[in-house]
Specification:
Layout (H helix, E strand, L loop, with lengths): L9 H10 L6 H11 L4 E4 L6 H13 L11 E4 L3 H14 L7 E4 L5 H10 L3 E4 L1 H9 L10 E4 L2 H6 L3 H9 L6 E6 L4 H10 L4 E4 L10 E7 L5 H11 L5 E4 L3 H13 L4 E4 L5 H13 L4 E4 L1 H4 L9 E4 L6 H8 L9 E7 L4 H11 L26 H10 L51 H7 L1 E2 L10 E2 L51
Parallel strand pairs: 1-6, 1-7, 2-4, 2-5, 3-4, 5-6, 8-13, 9-11, 9-12, 10-11, 12-13
Antiparallel strand pairs: 14-15
Helix pairs in contact: 2-3, 3-4, 14-15
Bound molecules: adenosine monophosphate.
Length: 521
């Protein structure tokens, strides 16, 4: 199928051609005709599938007729994060460039003045995060009863972030006679319940299994002691041919620590997390997209759905606690058919999280051998690892989606930043049906023979030295390389080797900022 077969207008087809797209992606092929017919759509698709254009393109055509009145947007797109909202706004600019559509982007962390002025002029498309939209609504700056098309994007993430009460309130302010497009990467029962509430006789479209990882992403996992993680990362980064890389940490605080550490070691690196002010976030992201910095340390919230052209590498500095975050993280690379590499640094205590990930993605993540960093075994005397439920604590007590603890489901980045040294994961979503289980759960199934062949470690003679990489199909027959020699360091107590003698680790990071080093010697 070609774009012209979808019945899109000439100006839109021209903009698509300018963008260099030749054929619609499966989600576009499936969703666009229903959107054009005015039907509600329930779309199960991840970022990276082209879903944004799947709703943006037909919306541009639908909105090209008619005019918006002051403060009364004609369509509304709800996004869970500011970065995603900004990305969708860019999509409207890109695909709507030959049409005169007006739009406003309502996100936290930027001045309201400009946003209010844009609203006063009247907008065809309003793209917003729920918190900022409610703020403006409560100040009487916006009326929602002229919205004809509503898009709820990344619904699973809205749920995880506690935005559903806001979304419900927003939907209650819209006219019942409207078209609603609802997208989610997963279709857990809770999401389906929401969809039932918001949609009328929707057409369901899905493009792939919710938890699929792209075949274009080469995955690997290296298991080391907690204290060796930063050096392992540095070794991996040096051994790989990196164009640009995202490095994910589970906690905002650790993003800062890792960023400073990498900077001290001379890497070209930036940091992105939800406690940073919006101007810095935008500037950092722009710099990374332009190639000013090579590595971006980030948290899940900040990097969710980011579309970074041709990202070569993703490193999980921490194993994600929620298995679905693994899929989202590594989905930043290997997009649009390009190849990418996603390496995860784990400690022995992460094994149950790894098993959950492997069950979710339906395959084993091949181990990487890194010389000098032998996989240590879990210390039986170590204090128990925080359970998933304990990790989630505040979120669940606050009532996920409830109106109690977190008010209207604040976007932590927007309106309720955490204290600087508070130690908590940025994202501890409680996704129903995510496959979590007690540590007695069975390990992931062994890969079938064909997959085992693919995951056999194999050399990359053209690049040396490097970590022993898991093989792609075409590499499987080459002899295995020697692992990258990495220096073996004797376990040191915190602060050893530091002039001050205590209170700092080997990178000079104050001990109070470091989380429990479970496997440290
Ligand atoms: P999305 O899933 O909306 O985040 O889109 C992922 C990436 O695919 C973006 O960089 C889009 O610009 C790109 N894209 C969207 N539609 C197409 C298409 N039909 N052909 C090629 N690339 C596309």
């Amino acid at each position: 199928m070609e774009f012209k077969d979808l019945g899109l207008s000439e100006p839109v087809l021209q903009a698509i051609a300018d963008a260099g797209y030749t054929t619609p992606t499966p989600i576009q092929e499936k969703a666009i005709p229903w959107v054009q017919m005015g039907r509600d759509v329930l779309g199960c698709a991840q970022t990276g599938t082209g879903k944004t254009a799947g709703f943006t393109l037909p919306m541009i055509d639908a909105l090209s007729q008619g005019r918006a009145k002051a403060r009364m947007p004609r369509s509304l797109i709800l996004e869970p994060t500011r970065e995603l909202a900004a990305q969708v706004a860019e999509n409207f600019d890109k695909y709507g460039k030959y049409l005169k559509l007006t739009k406003a982007l309502l996100i936290g962390g930027v001045s309201m003045d400009e946003q209010e002025k844009a609203l006063d002029r009247g907008v065809d498309v309003l793209i917003a995060t729920p918190g900022r939209l409610m703020d403006l609504f409560d100040r009487g700056r916006i009326l929602l009863h002229d919205v004809k098309i509503l898009v709820i994007d990344e619904a699973d993430r809205m749920l995880d972030m506690g935005f559903i009460p806001d979304v419900e309130r927003i939907v209650s302010l819209l006219p019942p006679l409207r078209q609603t497009l609802f997208f989610s990467a997963t279709m857990a029962p809770e999401i389906r319940k929401l969809a039932d509430k918001f949609l009328t006789n929707p057409k369901e479209v899905a493009v792939s299994a919710p938890a699929a990882t792209a075949d274009t992403v080469l995955q690997g996992i290296v298991t080391v002691a907690e204290r060796e993680k930063r050096e392992t990362l540095r070794r991996l980064v040096k051994a790989e041919q990196i164009k640009n890389a995202l490095v994910f940490c589970n906690r905002k605080r650790d993003v800062d620590i890792l960023w400073k550490s990498l900077k001290r070691h001379g890497f070209s690196v930036g940091a992105l997390h939800g406690d940073m002010d919006q101007a810095t976030r935008t500037e950092t992201l722009e710099g990374f997209k332009k190639g000013d910095v090579q590595i971006l340390c980030c948290s899940d919230v900040a990097a969710r759905g980011l579309d970074i052209g041709g990202l070569s590498h993703v490193f999980n500095f921490d194993v994600p606690i929620n298995a679905e975050d693994y899929v989202h993280r590594i989905g930043r690379t290997g997009r649009a058919g390009r190849s990418g590499v996603a390496y995860t640094i784990a400690t022995p205590d992460d094994s149950k999280f790894i098993h959950a990930i492997e069950r979710l993605i339906g395959k084993k993540i091949p181990p990487l051998a890194v010389e000098g960093f032998e996989a240590p075994v879990a210390d039986p005397n170590a204090p128990p690892v925080e359970s998933e439920r304990e990790h989630r604590g505040g979120r669940e007590r606050g009532g996920r989606g409830g109106r109690g603890g977190r008010g209207r489901g604040r976007d932590r980045g927007e309106r309720a930043p955490a204290p600087a040294n508070e130690s908590r994961p940025e994202e501890m979503p409680a996704v129903a049906g995510s496959g979590w289980g007690p540590s007695t759960e069975a390990p992931a199934e062994q890969p079938p023979a064909e997959m085992a062949a693919r995951t056999e470690p194999a050399p990359r003679a053209e690049r040396a030295p490097r970590a022993q990489r898991p093989a792609r199909q075409e590499r499987a027959e080459r002899p295995a390389p020697a692992p990258v020699p990495l220096p073996r360091r004797e376990p040191q107590p915190m602060g050893a080797g530091n002039p001050a003698g205590r209170g700092f680790d080997e990178d000079g990071v104050p001990a109070f900022l470091l989380r429990g080093r479970r496997a440290a010697g």
